[in-house]
């Protein structure tokens, strides 16, 4: 879901740099998630086109020429490509071929851009990209039901799906079964790489486990009575993995527990639309917490700053990793004190980021 947003935002910026017409982006339908949703089934296409009319011309599909739809010339640009890079690499091909498709379009635009292009990124992300009415209506219904239960609530974006763990290169204590299962995913998606799980953890690259994020929240002062909305896909290890978090926060909710099968039926077969529902609830939560520093977590943190400050707690994974490894060797008060110390600067205070 968030990966879609990031690529769409950068596609608009690339079209602006090239002074080109943008065809509404095709979404990745061959990833691990195997979701066949197209752009218009997740986002409001009319709003996307009209709200960016002064920035980039956007059309729904490549127009026919002589009664035929021309095949685009496919090319890939380097990661973090600057405006000059686009002008030198892509523009000549666009002028010659007329229609260019940029493939593998993730992290393909530099973060170092002039102010007007950075502002365009914000306009796309926070104004032009709106979910479809069915997604927004269901998302708001979930928020209403959370408010009815608790008034205020925490939303936790829990990335602990098998693909996430496999691609992280980390080890989570599941023994040979875990190594075999996650290794099979890496092999299936051609992402085999040499990884050192201990090094990844020391460098803060590993997502917190459900139990670890539960301990972090309790150490930060969130009590057992707090209502917790958990946004996630299929957690690796299922209920056994979630049990420690549920024991720490028994008021545990999700889109599945808050709605009927009939209400979720239009969204269930589509992971992107299910993630969009979670996005709506997380965005409206009083406190947003993440166990990772991935795309959706970063985009929600930015959105919650952009539309007025709302607290977002990110784990200081580099510092917390060693603390969790040694948790049983210290008292709870010592552990909680260290968590609070390590989390300074990661608690979503208004002055943390200029």
Automatic annotation (TrEMBL):
BP-aspect Gene Ontology terms: fucose metabolic process
Alphabetic keyword roster: Carbohydrate metabolism, Fucose metabolism, Glycosyltransferase, Transferase
MF term (GO), any: glycosyltransferase activity
Signal sequence, renumbered to the chain: none
Family matches, as InterPro entries: FucosylTrfase_pln (IPR024709), GDP-Fuc_O-FucTrfase (IPR019378)
Family note: Belongs to the glycosyltransferase GT106 family.
Protein name as it appears in the record: O-fucosyltransferase family protein
Species the sequence originates in: Aegilops tauschii subsp. strangulata (Goatgrass)
């Amino acid at each position: 879901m968030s990966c879609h947003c990031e690529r769409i935002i950068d596609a608009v910026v690339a079209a602006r740099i090239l002074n080109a017409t943008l065809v509404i982006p095709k979404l990745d339908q061959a990833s691990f998630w195997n979701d066949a949703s197209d752009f218009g089934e997740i986002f409001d296409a009319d709003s996307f086109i009209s709200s960016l009319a002064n920035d980039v011309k956007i059309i729904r599909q490549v127009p026919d020429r002589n009664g035929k739809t021309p095949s685009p010339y496919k090319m890939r640009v380097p990661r973090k490509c600057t405006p000059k890079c686009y002008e030198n690499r892509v523009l000549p091909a666009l002028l010659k071929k007329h229609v260019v498709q940029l493939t593998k379009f993730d992290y393909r635009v530099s973060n170092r851009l002039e102010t007007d292009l950075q502002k365009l990124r914000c306009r796309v992300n926070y104004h032009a990209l709106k979910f479809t009415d069915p997604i927004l209506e269901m998302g708001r219904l979930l928020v209403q039901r959370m408010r009815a239960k608790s008034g205020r609530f925490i939303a936790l974006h829990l990335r602990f799906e098998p693909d996430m763990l496999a691609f992280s290169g980390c080890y989570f204590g599941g023994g040979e079964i875990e190594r075999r299962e996650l290794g099979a995913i890496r092999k299936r998606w051609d992402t085999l790489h040499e990884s050192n799980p201990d090094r990844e953890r020391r460098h803060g690259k590993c997502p917190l486990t459900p139990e670890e994020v539960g301990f972090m929240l309790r150490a930060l002062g969130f009590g057992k009575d707090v209502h917790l909305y958990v946004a996630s896909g299929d957690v690796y290890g299922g209920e056994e993995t979630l049990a420690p978090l549920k024991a720490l926060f028994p008021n545990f909710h999700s889109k599945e527990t808050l709605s009927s099968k009939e209400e979720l039926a239009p969204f269930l077969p589509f992971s992107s639309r299910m993630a969009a529902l979670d996005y709506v609830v997380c965005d409206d939560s009083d406190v947003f917490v993440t166990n990772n520093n991935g795309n959706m977590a970063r985009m929600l943190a930015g959105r919650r700053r952009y539309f007025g400050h709302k607290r977002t707690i990110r784990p200081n994974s580099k510092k917390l990793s060693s603390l969790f490894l040694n948790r049983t060797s210290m008292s709870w008060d010592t552990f909680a004190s260290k968590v609070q110390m390590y989390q300074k600067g990661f608690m979503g205070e208004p002055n943390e980021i200029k």
